[in-house]
């Protein structure tokens, strides 16, 4: 899918192909990639790197364009089982146009995130800022999910919630690598001599770098918390299971004691105190009650 945009009055608006300054290709097919290679001079390896999950964020200067491969969090899917994944997108900045390659539509027409766009350089910085903002939003969601899972683990004996916690821990490793590589790209842009930024653009770039650094620190803290508490959470599940087994064992013994008394007197044998009277039933029931009360007394005294 291909979308075309242009700059108008400090905003990004949808435009026709012939007047477009910004071209966005979302999960392009083979024909779209071939067309892009012929028209823009990008090679297939560079295009594929924009969609490679394992590709680190990087900044490259070519003769005709500047290539920025940046990381962003992937939209969460319920089938991921609390596994938050990473995706990449590519920005190719030419003198008079920008080509964006992404696996999902980026909200360029969102005036809340993309406003006061005075140049193509400013649009590039806004895209990088959107990625950092997206990471921060996901970290807040992960923190809330972690709190909810912890509350469920307190009384759970199922490994399901524990596996969800493992998924969150694994996600934090991916987030650390992605945000760290993004920070490296931002640092290179700050020291770049190939791209000339105006003062407002430099200020925005500094703000993005600071926000990304704070996001990285937040990710490290959350990752440390999740990792350090995993053993404790596994112990909680194990203790909950032990407590349940203990309760079931006590109940089983409590049921077996009166059952033993009743079954003993129901055998077809003559006991030394064999009675053929109406009181025999009540005598047996009295013994059952006494034995049960004795068991409850011992249970309470020993705090089983």
Descriptive report:
The protein is of the alpha+beta class. It has two domains: 2-240, CorA soluble domain-like (Beta Polymerase, domain 2, 2-Layer Sandwich), CATH 3.30.460.20; 241-302, no CATH class. The protein is 57% helix and 13% strand. The chain contains six helices and seven strands; from the N terminus they run βββααββββαααα. The protein has helices spanning 30-40, 44-49, 120-153, 160-190, 199-265, 279-302; strands at residues 2-8, 11-14, 22-26, 58-61, 66-73, 86-93, 98-102. A seven-stranded mixed beta sheet has the order 2-1-3-7-6-5-4. Strand 4 (58-61) and strand 5 (66-73) form a beta hairpin. Helix 3 runs antiparallel to helix 4, helix 3 runs parallel beside helix 5 (199-265) and helix 4 runs antiparallel to helix 5. The radius of gyration is 33 Å and the shape is elongated. It starts with a strand and ends with a helix. 22% of the residues are buried. The model has no long low-confidence stretch (mean pLDDT 81).
């Amino acid at each position: 899918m291909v979308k075309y945009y242009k700059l108008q009055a400090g905003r990004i608006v949808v435009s026709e192909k012939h007047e477009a300054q910004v071209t966005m290709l979302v999960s392009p097919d083979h024909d779209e990639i071939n067309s892009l290679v012929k028209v823009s001079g990008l090679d297939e390896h560079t295009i594929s790197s924009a969609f490679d999950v394992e590709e680190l964020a990087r900044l490259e200067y070519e003769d005709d364009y500047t290539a920025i491969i940046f990381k962003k969090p992937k939209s969460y899917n319920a089938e991921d089982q609390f596994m938050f994944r990473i995706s990449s997108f590519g920005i190719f900045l030419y003198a008079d146009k920008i080509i964006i390659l992404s696996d999902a539509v980026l909200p360029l027409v969102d005036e809340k995130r993309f406003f006061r766009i005075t140049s193509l350089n400013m649009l590039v910085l806004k895209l990088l800022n959107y990625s950092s903002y997206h990471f921060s939003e996901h970290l807040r969601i992960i923190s809330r999910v972690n709190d909810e899972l912890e509350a469920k683990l307190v009384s759970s004996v199922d490994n399901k919630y524990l596996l969800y916690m493992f998924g969150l821990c694994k996600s934090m490793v991916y987030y650390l690598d992605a945000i760290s590589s993004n920070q490296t790209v931002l640092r290179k842009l700050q020291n770049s001599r190939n791209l000339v930024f105006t003062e407002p653009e430099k200020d925005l770039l500094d703000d993005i770098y600071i926000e990304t650094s704070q996001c990285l620190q937040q990710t490290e803290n959350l990752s440390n918390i999740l990792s350090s508490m995993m053993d404790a959470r596994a112990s909680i599940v194990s203790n909950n299971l032990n407590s349940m087994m203990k309760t079931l064992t006590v109940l089983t013994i409590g049921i077996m004691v009166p059952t033993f008394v009743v079954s003993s007197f129901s055998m077809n044998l003559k006991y030394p105190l064999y009675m053929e009277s109406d009181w025999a039933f009540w005598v047996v029931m009295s013994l059952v009650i006494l034995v049960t009360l004795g068991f409850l007394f011992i249970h309470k005294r020993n705090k089983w």
